[in-house]
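pasting input
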Amino acid sequence: MLTEAPRSMDPADQNATATRSVLSSFYETLVQFDEFGHIRPQLATDWSSSADGLEWRFHIRPNVFFHDGLPCDVDAVTASFRRLLDLAIPLAGAGVSRTVIRSVRQDGGSIVFTLKHPYADFLPLLTMTQTAVVSPDAARNGTLALHAVGTGPYVFEAWHSGDDVLTHRNPAYWGQAASFDGLKWIWSSEPSVLNMALQTGDADVVVPLSPVFANLYREQGHAAQVASVHASPGATLFWAALNMHLKPLDDARVRRALSLALDRTALVAGLLHGYGQPACSALTPDIHGALPCGVNEAHADLSAARALLKTAGLENGFSIIAVVQEPEEPMAEAIQAMWKQIGVRLEIRRQEAGVWVQSAFAPPDVKAHEQTGVILTSWSAPFLADMQLRPIYASASAAPQSANLGFFADLSLDALIDRAAGSEEAAQRQATLKEIQILLKQQVPVLPLYVADTLYGVRKGVEGVSAGPDGEILVLKARASGSGPERAP
Amino acid sequence: MMRNRFGVPVFRRSGTTFWLGGSVCSFLLLMAMLGPLILNADPSRQDLYHVLLPPSFAHPCGTDAFGRDIFVRLVYGLRLTLGEITVSLIVAAGIGIPVGLFSAMAPRWLDNAIMTVSDVLFAFPGLILALLIVSFLGPGLFHALLAIAAFSVPVYVRLARTMLVRIHHATWMEALTVLGVGRTRIMVRHVFPNVVTSLLVQLTLSSGEVVLAAASLSFLGLGAQPPLPEWGTMMSDGRNALGAAFWPCLFPGLAIAMTVIGLNCLGDGIRDRLDGRNKK
C-alpha cells in the first residue's frame, strides 16, 4: 500500500517514488544496483566504455521477451531509448537522459550510447526506472500511459483508477520467477489509514509508514504481533528553496540568518521521531564526498542569526510567504515557529499538488507577483551527485526549466558542477564536490533540512521486502513464509 | 414540582435546556475572557522534543505533533471561535435583516425577485456554497467567515420579511392603530418584543452552525491557517496521528461538540421561554 496513486504506467513519463515502486514490477533497466549498492547486469549482460568516457557499449541479454510476446532484443532496446531521447515526445522523466545522452545506435548485437560530455554517473543513470525498456509496439500505439508492457517478473493486469493496480506473475520471465501469483497495489493519502491497513491485514506491505506509528510496532501489543516495521537509511533530502529575486532574500546574510535559526536536530526529533538525520549540505549521505553536519551546525544559533539580520538592517525582522504541499506542511509549521524567534514572520500557503507545481516552478515575474519567497519540497536521486546538484543549483536549471526554484545563478558553481560530473577519478571528484558544498554553504540558495529514513511496515508472513534509499519499495524478491498471504503488498 | 391533571410530575424541558445551555455558554464565555489571562502562555510555542505526549498533570490534554500544549491551544482557540461567531453573525444579520425588511415593504415584483434569489441560495447545501466561495476568495479565516456569513444571509432575509409581513397584517396591530397608540410606542412596546424573540433564537441556533462550519472549513485547510489554534485545524492536524495518539483529535472534537450543544440548548431554551404559546 502506497501513499499516492501511480501517475502513469509509462516509466519515462513520471518522477514519483510511489509510481516507481509499482512500475519496477513491470519494467527492467539495462543495469541495476544490488543490495550492496554495486551495479549489476539486468537487461544488459556486460558493457564497456571508450577511453574518453563518451561512448558506452552494452550487450543485450538474449531470450528476453516483453509481456506482449515481442522479443526484447537490441532493436527493441534501441527503439526504447530513441523514444526517450526524442524531443518531439513530451516525457516528464526524460530530462536527465536528454541532457547527458547525445545519441543511441545499434552496432551488431550491441547498443552504443554517445554522450554529450563525460558523465561519471552514467551507469547509475541507467538504473533509474525512467530509462526502463518498454515494448516498441505499446510505445508506437501510445497505450503505455495506461497499460504497462515491460519485461519484468509481473505482468500488468488492470488499473482501476482510484482503487488499485492488479498484476499477475510473468510465466515467461527470464530470471527467477516471482513468488506470488500476483500483486495488488492500493493507496491512501492518510497516514493513519496506512497504519490501520497494516494492522487489519488489508495490506501486507505499507510504504512509507509515518514515523508516528513506528514505535507501535516495536512495543508489546497487537501491532507488534501482526507486523514489523523496518527503517533503512534514506536519500530523500527535504529542503527549502529561497527566492533570490525577492528582497530581502537576495542578501546572502539574510539567507545565512534563516539557516542559523533552524534547529535541524529538533526537526528530526519532532517530525521524524528520530528516523532520519539533519542535513547541512547539498548532498545526501549516500554520496561519497557528502559533508556531514559540523559541530553545532545542526542546532540553532539564534544570537548569530539575529546579529546577521542586524547587519543586514533587518533587526525588526520581515515577512515572507512559503508555498507547500499538504504532506510537507508540518515542516513549514515547525520552521515558522523557529523563524518567529528571530522576528521572521512566515505565512504558509498550503496548496494542492497541481497548484503547488504551478507556484513552485513559476518564473521570476510570477513568483514576484505572488510574493513567493520560500518553496518547501524534497528531492531524491540516490548515488547520483550530479542529479542532486545540477537540477537544483545550476543556472541553466532555473524554473520553469528544472528545479532551481529560487533562480540561483553562479557561473563558478556551474563550472564546478560540470567538472564534478566529468571527473572519473574519485579523489579529484570528491575534492570538487567538497568545493561545491562549501560554496553553497556560503551562498545558501537552498536550506537543506533533513534526510528522512525509509520506513516501511511488513505483515508477519511476508519476507524479502526491501526499500531503496529513495523510498521505492522492492517487492520482487518478496515471498510468503509459513502460512503467509498469497497476495502482497 | 409541577404535576399534570393526573398528578404525574411534569419535566419542564424548556427550563432544563435553557439552564444547561446557559451554563455551558457562560462557562465558555468566562473561559474565553479569563483563560488566557490565567494561563499566560503562547499557544504557538513548539517543543519538538516532546511531541504527542499523552494527557498528564503538566499537559491536561497532552501535546500535539509539534509539542504544543493542547489545553492552552483549546483555551486560546475559544476566543477564536467566539470571534468567528460574532463576525459571521454580524455580517449575516447585518445584510440579511435590512434586505428582508426592504423586501417586505417593496413592490411585489421586487419582493418576488429577492425571495427567488434567497430560495436559490437556500437550495445550495451551506458548506458546499462556503467551499465554492472560499475556493474563489482563497483560503484564510476571514474569507471562511465571509463564506459562512454568505450562506447564512438567506435565513435572515426570510426571517425578517416573514416577521414584518406577519406583524403588519396582525389584528392587534390594527387594534393598536385604531386605539390611537403612537407609532414609536407600537414599535418599542409591541413590534420589538415580537421581533427580538425570533431573532435571538435564530442567532443562538446559527452560532452552533457557524462553529461547525468554521471548524469544517479549517479541517479542510480552507479556514484558519497555521499556527492559529482553531479547533478544526487542530483536529485536522491530529488525524495524522490517529491510531498512535487519540488526544490531538479527541479534545478539540469534544470542545466543538460541547460548544455546539451548549449553543443549541440555549437557543431552544430561549425559544421555549419567550414563545407566548408556552407561557402558562
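fyi Chain B touches chain A through 23 residues (CB under 8 Å).
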